[in-house]
Amino acid sequence: MKTKVFQIVTLSLIIIIIFSCTNSDKKEMTEHQFMGYVENTQVNITGRLPGKITAIYVDEGDTVKQGEKIAQLDTRELDANMAALNFQLKNIILNKSRIEHLFQAGALPQQKVDEIETSYEVLRSNILALKTKIEDMVITSPIDGIVNVKVLEIGQMLSPGMAVVIITDPDGTWARFSIPEKYMNLIKLGQQFEITSNTPELIYSAKVIQTLPFAEFATHTPTTLRDERDIRTFDVKMKLIDTPHHTSINTSKPGMCVYLTLKDPIIENLKPNKKL
């Protein structure tokens, strides 16, 4: 009986040893986590001309299309000037018609016809220039996007180059990480990763679109040359993309913390003992 028990125990130990040795060459994944930040392409919506804001058609959080009205500047003075120019144009057209008839009758020289024609063309040019000015008093969006910040309010003065609102381009949303060079073998251009956030359910899909070394910067600089080297840091830019199984990029906010996990495979070369 004791011999049989001993044989069973011995056989069990042999099986455990063989199993352990066989699986010792399997890869074990070591994880390295890095923190980054969400960034967006942001566009300042400005005006070419100064003026008083009489209307703002959007609010923070609104989605806008390219060419959509953002704000209106006061055009009362320009409208009055346009009315005056149109009155002048009406009169000059009448005078031009009279002079042409008199010229055909031989009562006026060619010079008078040329003078009225020049006056007519100059006035038309002035009207077209004023029309362009009035159109520029309507501020529109140059891109599709989301209104992130409303800078000015109705009644405030707008100077050239000053932003009325700031629009975020949702297609220009990315995450930026600083990765030490010793982990760069785990990252390739075009590779896709899952990146997480401080909110557990917000998991994004991101595609590597740029890897650049930081100029003249090392996370570790050796004090001696023996057995030590610089460790440089790379700026890794990942474009957030919409996929069916991940969070929409529209939920991301500029400055949001996101986390990238890199898995480094380590193989333990434990050789099985053949003498059992």
Order of helices and strands: HEEEEHHEEEEEEEE
Specify the CATH architecture of the domain at 26-41 and 169-267: Beta Barrel
Specify the structural class: alpha+beta
Please report the first level of CATH classification, the CATH class of the domain at 26-41 and 169-267: Mainly Beta
Distance between the termini: 24 Å
Low-confidence stretches: 267-272
CATH H level, superfamily name of the domain at 26-41 and 169-267: Efflux pump adaptor protein, beta barrel domain
CATH topology of the domain at 26-41 and 169-267: Elongation Factor Tu (Ef-tu), domain 3
Rounded radius of gyration (Å)? 37 Å
Number of helices: 3
Give me some keywords for this one:
about 280 residues; 6-stranded antiparallel β-barrel; elongated; Elongation Factor Tu (Ef-tu), domain 3
